[in-house]
Design brief:
This protein has about 325 residues and is of the alpha/beta class. The protein has one domain: TIM Barrel, CATH 3.20.20. The strands form two sheets. Strands 1, 2, 3, 8 and 9 form a five-stranded parallel beta sheet that branches. β1, α2 and β2 form a beta-alpha-beta unit. α1 packs across α9. The relative contact order is 0.20.
Length: about 325
């Protein structure tokens, strides 16, 4: 079987599995599944740049932008009380199995995801916790050497919302230093712990030279907010197509995640004929890096790449384009 034929088989399997999962959900909810999109085209072409001119909304006339986040967190979690598939443990005791759950993300998860992105020729944004980078600098460096973006995610898992402005600034400065030390690159994008920053977060980030943050779910396209009289970019994140939410919070199975990805893409691709649309996908080292989840992600990428005009982009690319585009929505004075 040729690589192209194999790709078509994988896409058919993804579409069939996603539709089956959607049909099961619809049977229980009284909703009908959405129609199947048109036939696949040019499955093996790289989607790091637009496939063909389709509209005025993205570079090169791309129709829809898709941005994948890969969270790099393992090793930075607290010894006690970190979320995991295991039942809560009395905080007097270290949670040893949970520690191994997180280690999987470094030993297996990120390497597997990097292989998926390499095969499919897409570049992603990796949100890196500083302590995790300090523990695994070679892996952080490899991510950047493969052409992916290193973005900041705080120095530890201490929630930003509980910090004073001085503590918050110190955390971000340490995070920047950890990433720069390991990769040689200074991050320009930021993601707070569970998206919960403080009233001071954006001004601190702007002072430190950051270009954008992702902690806002209020649009399906990038937009600008005014911070200290200057524009600051928001590249919206996701909870709907985020594996930590579907796995750890909703307990969806793998087929359910596949259905979420497909239906989100189909709806946004249709809307993108007349307006700028961005699809965000988030995978975590220890969750999205599992074999089944990584397979679902790869089949989704193949499915998306079979549609003309789909641009898989790093978030820094999206932010820089949004900052210069005259049609980017602007909020604030």
């Amino acid at each position: 079987m040729s690589p192209v034929d194999a790709g078509r088989v994988n896409r058919r399997a993804f579409t069939t599995g996603a539709l089956a999962a959607g049909a099961l959900f619809a049977a229980g909810s009284g909703c009908a599944p959405s129609p199947v999109p048109g036939p696949a085209r040019d499955p093996e072409r790289s989607s790091h740049m637009p496939l063909s001119p389709r509209g005025p909304f993205w570079p090169g006339g791309a129709r829809l932008a898709v941005s994948i986040s890969m969270q790099f967190e393992a090793g930075a979690q607290p010894e006690r009380g970190a979320s995991s598939p295991y039942p809560p443990l009395d905080p007097r005791y270290p949670d040893l199995p949970a520690t191994k759950w997180y280690e999987y993300g470094i030993k297996e998860g990120i390497p597997r995801l990097l292989s998926v992105f390499e095969r499919r020729k897409v570049k992603v944004t990796s949100h890196m916790v500083g302590k995790a980078v300090d523990l695994h600098p070679a892996l952080a460096r490899e991510i950047v050497e493969r052409g992916h973006e290193a973005a900041a995610h705080g120095q530890t898992w201490t929630p930003q919302f509980s910090m004073s402005p001085a503590e918050e600034r110190a955390s971000y400065e340490a995070n920047v230093q950890s990433i720069e030390r390991a990769t040689g690159v200074r991050p320009v994008g930021f993601n707070a712990f569970w998206m919960r920053g403080t009233p001071s977060t954006l001004s601190i980030l702007q002072d430190l030279g950051f270009l954008y943050h992702i902690d806002d779910l209020s649009r399906d396209e990038p937009f600008l907010v005014t911070v200290q009289g200057r524009p600051f970019v928001v590249v919206p994140y996701t909870l709907g197509t985020n594996d930590i939410v579907s796995f750890e919070e909703r307990h969806h199975d793998t087929a359910g995640f596949a259905a979420d990805l497909k239906y989100e893409f189909d709806a946004l691709y249709e809307e993108a004929a007349t307006r700028r649309r961005l699809m965000s996908v988030s995978v975590h080292d220890r969750i999205g890096g599992r074999p089944g989840r990584a397979r679902v992600l790869e089949e989704f990428i193949q499915y998306a790449q079979s549609h003309p005009g789909v641009w898989f982009a790093r978030k820094d690319e999206i932010a820089r384009f949004a900052l210069e585009s005259p049609i980017t929505p602007r909020e604030g004075p």
